[in-house]
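Weekly modeling sync, notes
Attendees: S.R. (lead), two postdocs, one rotation student

Agenda item 3: backlog of single-chain predictions. S.R. asked that every request posted to the team notebook include the full sequence so nobody has to chase files. The rotation student volunteered to paste the first one in as an example of the format we agreed on. Action items at the bottom.

Example entry:
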Amino acid sequence: MKKVLIPFLSVLIFLASCKDSEEPVSACGVTDPVENLAWLNDSITNIESGDFKDETYLVMATYEGQTVFFFGYCCPSCLSIAITFYDCNGDVIEEQGIINNLENQQVIWKSRNSTCNLD
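Predicted structure, as returned to the notebook:
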């Protein structure tokens, strides 16, 4: 009985420790910047009420040691969309070539019905 019980309990503990959702990211001195940075939350609220909410996603990255955010787009009918980069305070970062020097990029928000294939 012990030979069956120990492997069974091991598998049960392993399965119970699995999580269905990812932990919120921490950045800019807060956990879950999407919810806890007011300017970022307001920006997402505005996007969610717009026409391109399902073609928009939010990326967090590192640029020269600082956390930056930008909204990406997967709109097939849009010819060109300028990308604006923001720091933790929501201030625009105006530097040439920033897109080429980003590290640790990760999508931290997209709409529930996103049409973007980000996998």
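Discussion: group reviewed the output briefly. The chain has a mean pLDDT of 83.
Action items: rotation student to repeat for the remaining queue; S.R. to check formatting next week.
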